[in-house]
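Standup notes
- HV: blocked on the assembly model, inputs below
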Amino acid sequence: MNTKIHIAIAEPSVIIRGGIINLLRQIREADIYIIEIPDITQLEFMLCRYKSDVLIINPALVGYHAIHQMKHSPDLNQIRYVALHNALADPLTLGIFDENITIYDSAEQIKTKIVKLCHKEQSSEVKQELSVREKEIIMEVVKGLTNKQIAEKLCLSVHTVITHRRNIANKLQIHSPAGLTVYAILNKLVSLEDIQN
Amino acid sequence: MYRLGKYRRTDKMSDLICENYSMLLVMSRFGIPVGFGDLTIEEVCTKNNVDVRTFLTVVNLLICGEKDPGEQDPGVLSIPSLITYLKNSHTYFLGFRLPTIRSKLIEVLDSSDSQISTAIIRFYDEYVEQVKRHMEYEEQTLFPYIDSLLAGKKDPFYQIKVFCMQHDQIDAKLSELKNIIIKYYSSGNTNELNSVLFDIFSCSGDLASHNFIEDHLLVPEISRLERNVRKK
């Protein structure tokens, strides 16, 4: 399973929206959660309420200035903006978007563009075995040690421990200490007695 | 017959259920038993004192994943009906679904390796505890707040926004358990293990749709109600 990606689609036409959603559902590289915004007046409200990673929007609905403003607003600047245009659009407006899709793109083209964006987002995601250090950290986490205690015990900085824990969560897709405990026991990294002590 | 459109009050209840068997759960949470012959959705709802519009909105939202803006006239939904639905749904998860999965898990987990079974059951129990807290919060804080709003009283210290901000996805951790079992657990009891995995898959789907109804139906209705009460 991959990281969850929230994609908002602001497009009034139900046919176009439905078509895009259909394509997004075929993408297997990311776990995509879709937020539909048929009513453009609800755009900001919806984006604030459902934190989105990607916004697919018809540039004719908002224009250059609105996107420019959104990109500089502290709440919305982490979003990646994708233009979805069904008519000629001027290059200056399109230039402000992170990616653009036309309704005549092929299914493959659209999917590739979205996957590329999603990957930019999770560039840190690497799929490989756990390192020895990461295994050591799991063993301490399941014993109930705090990040600070782990750092002291293994002579690392707290910051490094946090980075390791993030990488572990990404590699295993296990985010809770309880989940790591089950993992550790199944993989014989620790025994139940170690934890109870 | 494959249906593209939405269900209407004049459709037969039996058609709705046969075409979408997961709606059995919705029906029983509204307090409607099976055995309704050839009655239409509206007739069955009236007979069981269920608000038909609320029933249809929930059903169509779960089947199509989309609200029909045309049907969304303010105040059309019966909030008490919706609350009954949500409360019954809580009882179902806490009193039936989650305990059933727990006893199936105990049965299927290899008793020869007690360490693994203990760890998995402990994880599961922690999870259920979390779901319980989540649902108790709604029962003890959110629903009474809505009751007083319906009575025209506005609590100065609480808003539906507060609920939105802390309403987390309760199905995530259950998916984690499923992933751990699939990736790392090997057992001889294939059929039994598959059966409990199917249960976990469908239960996390149900929990997700339960949350979906709260976020997409209850929350907008309550913010509208808040605005109305404020105006008065």
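- HV (later): unblocked. The radius of gyration of chain B is 20 Å. The first helix of chain B runs from residue 13 to 19.
- Next: hand off to the docking folks.
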